[in-house]
Amino acid sequence: MQKNEHLKRVHRQSFLLNSREMRAMSHFCKKYKINNKSKFIRETLVTAILKKFDDDHPTLFDFDKEPNLFSGSGS
To answer: What is the pLDDT of residues 8-41, one digit of tens each?
Structure first.
């Protein structure tokens, strides 16, 4: 099986949790038998982002808003 180079993960992001957040994360992962925390965080983040984009989608009367998320180089 050949991987699509376009989908290869090459952009590293990191963040810090306080002790309470880490305990909550550990408890959640243990309770729901999540072994791959990286995958869980990535999928949860992307789901939240896509939901927000969907919620903020321009309506019939938003003529000045025409977002194009996938054009340009991004930042």
So the answer is: 999 999 999 999 999 999 999 999 999 999 999 9
Size (the chain), residues: 75
Q: Are 28 and 34 in contact (CB under 8 A)?
A: yes
For the record, the structure tokens of 18 come out as 């306080």
If we measure between CA atoms, which residue out of 27, 9, 7 comes closest to residue 17?
27
Side-chain-facing half-sphere of 23: CA atoms under 13 Å: 3
pTM > 0.85: no
Q: Give CA–CA dist 27/21, Å, rounded.
A: 10
